[in-house]
Design brief:
about 15% strand; flavoprotein; NADP; Oye-like; Aldolase_TIM
Length: about 140
């Protein structure tokens, strides 16, 4: 999907619509097979792992949200723009709010959260849920 690595010249390359086409086809096929009430999606429009960056990640994120809204998927699990790689986070002017505001289902934010700022994100309506993947890997008793 990212314009820095997608150099295709067919119907899956070039414009944002074309670059997102394959993901859309997968979502549509899964929804048709198992039902929309069982489908969620995890996306990372800001991530640049392996030099796979996007020149306009906010536009990509909002576009993705608007497309999956048409299907009514159950949730969107999205990685914070402040995350570069595991254990590295940085300050950024970017935010998930444009995607949060556009998405109609359950919005799950992930990336660099602890209990305090995770609770704050929910209280401030930044997210419906917050994921704590790495914390659970280190401490299976985290909820206690």
């Amino acid at each position: 999907m990212k314009d820095q690595v997608n150099d295709r010249t067919d119907k899956y390359g070039g414009s944002l619509e074309n670059r997102y086409r394959f993901s859309l086809e997968i979502v549509e096929a899964v929804v048709n097979e198992i039902g929309v009430d069982k489908v969620g999606m995890r996306v990372s429009p800001y991530a640049s792992y392996m030099e796979a960056s996007e020149s306009n990640p906010e536009a990509l994120g909002v576009y993705m949200v608007n497309i999956v809204n048409k299907f009514g998927i159950l949730y969107l699990h999205i990685i914070e723009p402040r995350m570069i790689k595991i254990n590295d986070k940085y300050e950024t002017p970017h935010s998930l709010l444009p995607m949060r505001n556009a998405f109609k289902g359950t919005f799950i934010a992930v990336g660099g959260y602890n209990v305090d700022n995770g609770n704050k994100a929910i209280t401030n309506n930044y997210s419906d849920l917050v994921a704590f993947g790495m914390l659970f890997l280190a401490n299976l008793d985290l909820p206690r």
